[in-house]
Design brief:
It is built from 21 helices and 12 strands. By secondary structure, the protein is an alpha/beta fold. It has a domain of about 300 residues: ABC transporter transmembrane region fold (Up-down Bundle), CATH 1.20.1560.10. The strands form 3 sheets. Strands 6-9-10-3-11-12 form a 6-stranded mixed β-sheet. The protein is elongated, with a radius of gyration of 36 Å. About 5% of the residues have low confidence.
Length: about 600
């Protein structure tokens, strides 16, 4: 919790003024019982209506001044709480954005969403109430006790016994509630995670007719959350009745003792009324304090959860070297491919020429956090600038993991990946990724327009550059078929476009950047063979020495690549051209023959 309170530093003035005005309001409130006592003892006993009227005006004045102080305190506390939560939410979002894929995978999307929304809102409410009531309630409680001592010491001893007893009840409930509220928030994470999973996978659930099973699973988690909330609610609900019982018993004793003191002439009737008012004030303030404690308990639990998220450090350290583009804005030169068979003593890239190696995988390996089996093992590959590299393999063979090492989505746990002679870990990630265009397996478009989505690749791209990228991605007809063209609205996630249209638009978005390295991670799976072929041909004909990695399940998509990497269970089992691999790699041959009939079959 201490970690997140630093974001209140910018609101020091508000954090001082809000409690200060609340204390002023409380001070005026403590004078009210004395005014009532004066009305009873002097005005009513003496029948002086003028005095009663004057004292009533004094009470009204105290009320108006108290209201003004209360409104002012509320303004400053709200300003501090809202500003604090805004900064906290912004810093939390920025921190999450700085984490590597490893930490994001471990934390989970639903957990991060809960921290950003519900937890921050709970902390905001806690800060608001603390600034308004945390000092006011104790001030009135102990102030009322002090004022009671000024009236009568014997009667005031009832306050001395009552207040500690109430404190035991209030803080006892708080100490028990804090860990339980933490469990409630964890259960809420599970419910939100299940909700998100069902909403994103609604089509799959309906396709397999799993609605009833998912409803039952959600109901089970929801019931568990409900049970926890009800238990904590019952425990917290004990606070108000217990405090009311204690206070009312104290008032009964106070009236009895006061009555005896009046009979003996020690105190007046007005002073007994004042003592009862002070005890009532304590009751009201302790009820407020009890509710405050419940809110603060939730806020502390949520604040600790946010603090835990902020304490997560990225496993990746940013490099210091600037990435220098090596693109040559000339017609692409095809790289002559050597005929050396993979595995014949040289695992350097097929395709040796006079140019230096641009991308090198040097015994690279990857093991995901929490996994006991490496995802990639001992990968050796040398890629010349301007080459096209095909990556193929069975499901789960590590194709995506392989290309994710290039932009440092994940860092190698063994060996190294080098670009331009330097380890990718030496480059500043922003500069490195600025020169890499990657199209993920799942085509994601963002809410806005087609133009805005394309300009993610280059915010300064001209109209001509946008249309050139669309032409290359075979997406011109997609845009021209829309009424507003480039300004056509895009729904959340691109839901108003088909799967193939989304894929082509995401490819165009990557091409707008004109990257040094283009990675197509099975991004043409929804395209027909003719469109896929036209796309690959257009990319080959682009100007500049762009190095292209094509991950695909189709041998037709990578058939004409300069080199083809064949992966099986995270290991490179083949490297070469299409013709070479048909002869030397049984894994590649099996994939090819499963897609094309053998001659005579």
């Amino acid at each position: 919790m201490k970690k997140i309170l630093v974001y209140l530093k910018s609101y020091k003035k508000e954090c001082v003024l809000a409690p200060l005005f609340k204390l002023l309001e409380a001070t005026f409130e403590l004078f009210v019982p004395l005014v009532v006592a004066a009305i009873v003892d002097t005005g009513i006993t003496g029948g002086d209506r003028g005095y009663i009227l004057r004292m009533c005006c004094v009470m009204i004045l105290l009320g108006v001044i108290g209201l003004a102080c209360s409104v002012t305190a509320q303004y400053f506390s709200a300003r501090a709480a809202v500003g604090f939560s805004t900064r906290l939410r912004r810093e939390l979002f920025a921190h999450i954005q700085s984490l590597s894929f490893t930490e994001l995978d471990q934390a989970g999307t639903s957990t991060m969403i809960t921290r950003m929304t519900n937890d921050v809102n709970q902390v905001q409410s806690g800060v608001n109430l603390v600034l308004r009531l945390f000092m006011r309630s104790p001030f009135i409680v102990f102030g009322a006790m002090v004022m009671a001592f000024t009236i009568d010491v014997k009667a005031a001893m009832i306050f001395v016994v009552t207040i500690p007893l109430l404190s035991v009840v209030v803080f006892g409930v708080m100490l028990i509630s804090i860990p339980l509220y933490r469990r409630v928030q964890n259960a809420l994470d599970l419910v939100l995670g299940k909700t998100r999973e069902n909403l994103t996978g609604a089509r799959v659930i309906r396709a397999f007719h799993r609605e009833d099973e998912e409803i039952d699973d959600f109901e089970r988690r929801n019931v568990a959350l409900n049970g926890l909330q009800r238990f904590v609610g019952k425990l917290s609900g004990l606070m108000n009745p217990l405090t009311f019982v204690i206070i009312n018993m104290a008032i009964v004793v106070l009236i009895y003792v006061g009555g005896v003191q009046v009979d003996t002439g020690v105190i007046t009737q007005g002073e007994v009324v004042a003592l009862a008012n002070y005890m009532s004030q304590i009751l009201v303030e302790l009820v407020k304090l009890a509710n405050l404690i419940i809110t603060v308990t939730k806020a502390v639990a949520c604040g600790n959860r946010i603090g835990q998220m902020l304490e997560i450090q990225s496993s990746q350290e940013d490099g210091k070297e600037a990435f220098v583009s090596q693109m040559r804005q000339t017609a692409r030169e095809k790289v002559p491919v050597s005929k050396k068979r993979p595995g014949s003593g040289d695992t350097s890239s097929a395709g040796q020429d006079s140019r230096e190696d641009y991308i090198v995988f040097d015994h690279a390996g990857l093991m995901y956090a929490g996994s006991s089996v490496p995802a990639l093992t001992d990968l050796n590959l040398r890629v010349k600038r301007g080459q096209t590299i095909g990556v193929i393999g069975g499901t789960g063979s590590g194709k995506s993991s392989f290309v994710h090492l290039i932009p440092r989505f994940y860092d190698t746990t063994a060996g190294a990946v080098r670009i331009g002679g330097r380890d990718v870990k030496d480059y500043r990630m922003e500069g490195l990724r600025r020169h890499i265009g990657i199209v993920m397996q799942k085509a994601v478009l963002f809410h806005g327009s087609i133009r805005e989505n394309l300009q993610w690749g280059n915010e300064n791209a001209t109209e001509e550059e946008l249309w050139t990228a669309l032409d290359t991605a075979q997406a011109r007809n997609v845009v021209e078929g829309k009424t507003l063209g480039l300004d056509e609205p895009v729904g959340q996630g691109g839901g108003n476009f088909s799967g193939g249209q989304r894929q082509r638009l995401t490819i165009a978005r990557a091409l707008v950047r004109r990257p040094d390295i283009l990675i197509l991670d099975d991004s043409a799976s929804a395209l027909d063979y003719a469109t896929d072929a036209a796309l690959r041909k257009a990319i080959r004909n682009m100007s500049g020495d762009m190095t292209v990695f094509i991950v695909s399940q189709r041998t037709s998509s990578i058939r004409y690549a300069d080199q083809i990497v064949v992966l099986d269970e995270g290991k490179m089992v083949g490297l070469g051209t299409h013709e070479e691999l048909l002869e030397s790699c049984h894994v590649y041959r099996e994939i090819y023959e499963s897609q094309y009939r053998k001659e005579g079959a």
